[in-house]
Amino acid sequence: MELLYLILAMLVGSGAHILKKVVQRRKTDETFSLKDFLTKYPYKTALAVLAGVGGFLGLQAAGELTMASAFMTGYIANSLGGAAENNVG
Q1: Contact criterion met (CB below 8 Å) for 25 and 32
Q2: For a Cys-Cys bond, which of 24, 32, 44, 60 suits 65, CB 3.0-4.6 Å?
Q3: For the chain, what is the domain count?
Q4: What does the alpha-carbon distance between residue 10 and residue 31 come to, in Å, rounded to a whole number?
Q5: What is the 3-state secondary structure (H, E, C) of 11-50?
Q6: DSSP code, position 55
Q7: How far apart (Å, rounded) are the C-alpha atoms in residues 65 and 88?
Q8: How confident is the model at residue 85 (pLDDT cuts 50, 70, 90)?
Q9: Alpha-carbon span 25 to 37, nearest angstrom
Q10: C-alpha 87: how far from chain center
């Protein structure tokens, strides 16, 4: 059961970062929605999920997985997905 809570913490962290990006985008485009973000950036979303899972498993293997580290793994993985997208091409 504890593992489920840790996975949820990672997903909440990722969701928090996505919502932050949607709010930023809505400042310039009031019609922009969460659905727009998820459908406009499918590769970024997939990359963030994979990076989050990798970070989560790494923390678990190192014995450093806590609620806070799981949350931040999700948040940071989503942030890195955006950074990778901005540096490509």
Answers
A1: yes
A2: 60
A3: 1
A4: 28
A5: HHHHHHHHHHHHHHHHCCCCCCCHHHHHHHCHHHHHHHHH
A6: H
A7: 31
A8: low
A9: 9
A10: 18
Question: Which pLDDT belongs to residue 1?
Answer: 81
- Domain region containing 71: 2-87
Over residues 59-86, the mean pLDDT reads 86
Maximum Cα–Cα distance for the chain, whole Å?
A: 43
Q: Give the position of tokens 């990076």.
A: 51
Structure tokens that stand for 14 in this block: 């990722």
At 42-68, the pLDDT tens digits run 888 888 889 999 999 999 999 999 999
* Residue 10 · residue 71 · CB < 8 Å: yes
Cβ 59 vs Cβ 81: under 8 Å: no
The structure tokens listed for 52 are 């989050």
